[in-house]
Amino acid sequence: MREDVEAADRGEDVRAAARAWNRAGAIDKRTLDAIRKQYPDDRSRVRPAFRVLLFLFTFVAAGSAFAVLALNEVPMGALLFLAALGSIVLTEVQIGELRRSSAGAEEATALLSFWFSVAALGWLVEDASGDFPWRFLSVAAAVLATVAAWRWGLSIFGALAAVCLFAALSFWYGARTWWVLAALALVFPLLSASVSPRLAPAHRRAADAALVTVLGALYLAVHLSSYDWWLLERDFWYGSPEGSRPGRSFFIATTALLPLLLLAGGVFLRRPLLLRVGVVLGVASLVTLRFYVHVAPLWVVLLASGGAAVAIGMLLNRYLASGPRGERHRFTAEPLFGNESRAKAFDAGLGMALAPGPAPSGTPEEPGFEGAGGQFGGGGASGKY
Amino acid sequence: MSPDVAKAIPHLRVRGLLTEAQARRLLRVARGELLSVWNELRTLLYTGVVLITAGVGFLVRENLDRLGPVAIAIGVGVAAAVCFFWIARHAVPFTWREAPSTHLAFDYVLLLGVLLASADLAYVEAQFTPLGPNWPWHLLFASLSMAALAFRFDSRVVFSLALSTFAAWRGVSVWCVDQEFWPNSGGAARLNTIGCGVLFVLLGVLLVREKRKEHFEPVATYVGISLVLLYLTSGSLTDEPSWSAHTIALILAGASLAAYSLHVRRRFPLFAMGALAVYVGLSRAIVPSLDDETVVFLWFLFTSVGAIAALMAVHRALEKSS
């Protein structure tokens, strides 16, 4: 990463924090302006709506240019290399000369440069050997994504690098073991990288993205269903062999324990990311439990788990709020300096997500109560329940 | 946790920009010594509400014969009443302004109560059919009740649910992706869509003008405009004779929205929706008349580059004016 980009990134981190403090009422507008002067921004940034539009139009423009050249019989190999090189140069110019940051267009060209580079390499190697080189391509893509993450600091490349690495390991014999070993080898360096003061904030975010992917891969590798279905073994592609394998109890234990370990790690290391991943994987493990063991009818499980979630949420909130200054063990249920207003705007979307199905237009027939739980709407029913 | 912010705070304190008390609290957060689980708890509560609502659906389905319709209707009704009782105990007095939240779970318990009550209403309607063939009217009743509760208890979640339930009453699903723009529902559903859209936008205008729950306005406006643009886009992308009229209307509506949201309201997501609508409309009008594939891609290439340049220019002008 260029030094000026890193310096701007660090300054933006402070300005973003100051904006959050101002929103939460911790500092006034005058102090916010003074902090902005202390940490001036030399980057060309755009508002989120513009960022989305610029990203979209850059993609359409680049894709159309590629299609025009391809239709006019420009040799595919040359075209792919040209497109990759062009996208890299465009990204460098935008981030360097034009000092763009979070502006949509440079993010689109960065992503395009990755895809075009991988496609160009695939074309080159396939042409030479006659067989498509998935393994080589996955390794190359992992390396390219890592380099892109390092150079441009886009967090998506952190996740892409991890995805490509695990895709590459899938082609090796004993992929499951490799996945576990690779994940264990990466978790702690990534945990350390995501809070390292030596790294730029963009690199820390990329490390976070990679960490989430790595934890997901680790969970998949030690998950009971993936073991039972031979998901990471070559046999999966040719039909899973019959009969059980040894060591199944190990996978039962790991499916249950990994989310708990992550939750415990999140509490002890004070890392919200581990808490969130732990909660998501915990839900996945509960679903797995329901899949294998029919402890009770589905409605009991849903009501019990829903009730438990609400009860735990309310009890934790009460426990934390009743502590001195609304905190216990250095945890609080207050929003602190997060974006509370954005969260409330998001709430409106949650209401929409529970919208009932439409009533049929024209003369409606009388509804028959089908009781199809999957259609159970929020604000009423569509006659199907 | 942010090492750069943690490093900056002592500097800001030395320069007198932060007081000692401010710096101490901010530093604790920046160093990760004080951690908020506010978002995590909210997610947990929302997940719980969704699971309980789904669970009630399955309970009714699987136990209808065993429990009987009266027992089920009373049971679900009592559960909803418990939620409303809790809400009544924790609610602040009514105000037309934004009310402070008294409890992290307030919105979610209210949402659960509303979902259970409306499910109960739907169940009663389905089982005992008091409205007969006019059964969709229960959706209107549910929607109006939700709106009243949303206003009383100042809940954006319930307000958005009220709007989507109202749209459902008119046969419009906000999530219509699975129906591919209502292939079999014809013009009635489309008219209902634009009708709901315009009504919601007007509702938003009214809320602001009358200074009544002004903070609900974005919900009504965004949903309303989405429905209007969806209607125009779906009409424009069909092969029906009216496609050209829809396309012209889409372009005009998009351009007006973009200009209005940029110059009057400074609401950039609306500007993005308007700009996209104009681009889709123009492409729909021009592309069918191009018979060469290369020319089609050249159209997208040049118009996209033009759009990028225009967006950059608009953004620069905005920066200068602010």
Query: Main β-sheet of chain A, in a few words?
Result: 2 strands, antiparallel
> Using only CA atoms, what is the Rg of chain A?
25 Å
Tell how many strands the DSSP assignment of chain B holds: 1
Oligomer: heterodimer
The strand count of chain A comes to 2
Q: Give me the strand/helix succession of chain A.
A: HHHHHHHHHHHHHEEH
The chain pair forming the largest interface, with residue counts per chain, is: A-B, 115 and 128 residues
Class computed from helices, strands and strand pairing of chain B: mainly alpha
Query: N-to-C terminal Cα separation of chain B, in Å?
Result: 32 Å
Per the principal axes of the C-alpha atoms, what is the gross shape of chain A? Answer: globular
What does this structure look like?
The complex is a heterodimer of chains A (385) and B (322). Chain A has 385 residues and is mainly alpha-helical. In chain A, 68% of the residues lie in helices and 1% in strands. A two-stranded antiparallel sheet of chain A has the order 1-2. Chain A is globular. Chain B folds into three domains: 1-35, no CATH class; 45-169; 178-289, no CATH class. Chain B is built from twelve helices and one strand; from the N terminus they run H-H-E-H-H-H-H-H-H-H-H-H-H. Chain B has helices at residues 3-14, 20-30, 38-67, 69-90, 106-128, 137-153, 156-169, 186-209, 217-236, 243-265, 268-286, 293-321; one strand spanning 35-36. In chain B, helix 3 (38-67) packs antiparallel against helix 4, helix 4 runs antiparallel to helix 5 (106-128) and helix 8 (186-209) runs antiparallel to helix 9. Chains A and B meet through helix 1, helix 2, helix 3, helix 12 and helix 13 of A and helix 1, helix 2, strand 1, helix 3 and helix 5 of B.
